[in-house]
Design a protein that fits this description.
Strand order of the largest sheet: 1-8-3-6
CATH superfamily: Jelly Rolls
Number of strands: 8
Radius of gyration: 17 Å
Number of helices: 4
CATH class: Mainly Beta
Number of domains: 1
CATH architecture: Sandwich
Length: about 150
């Protein structure tokens, strides 16, 4: 677990201290961890199993955007730790899974008590958000180009 990018900037003592605020949970297959449109306050590290990330289309049907396997670099739901708005996608287990969950309140309290470690964690989360924004920008350009091509060919 300590080799996860979230812990990359932390020394061993800092990482051990940080992991104490996570709650380990075994989650059965087909369990929704967070639901699009609801208010969330947790983020997750996937330790075992697989989850799907899906979005709802205009017909109220879910479509899978991506699948996350344990052992990857994803720390998902991290926006819930910063923003108190609605969740932007649904995360559901597609195999029996083991997660580590952290809540907004637990993270905030930890960072208040450990500002040097908190700075490193927030910096990592900010870099993750930047990467997600860059990917979203590329996806928008791809969709725009596809739309222009369809319109021009009609």
């Amino acid at each position: 677990m300590y080799n996860h990018p979230l812990f990359k900037e932390l020394n061993k003592e800092e990482a051990q201290k940080f992991t104490q605020i996570f709650k380990r949970k075994e989650i059965p297959v087909n369990t929704i961890l967070i639901k699009e449109g609801e208010i969330g306050n947790s983020a997750f590290l996937l330790i075992g199993g697989k989850v799907s990330i899906s979005k709802e289309n205009i017909y109220n049907e879910d479509y899978i955007v991506t699948i996350i396997d344990a052992g990857g670099d994803e720390f998902f739901g991290e926006i819930n730790l910063i923003d108190e708005g609605k969740i932007t996608s649904t995360i559901k287990t597609i195999e029996d899974s083991i997660i580590l969950e952290v809540t907004r309140d637990d993270l905030k309290n930890f960072m208040d008590q450990n500002p040097e470690i908190g700075y490193k964690i927030i910096w990592h989360m900010a870099k993750n958000c930047v990467n997600h924004l860059k990917k979203a920008d590329n996806d928008v350009i791809t969709l725009f180009n596809a739309l222009v091509e369809v319109v021009e060919n009609d």
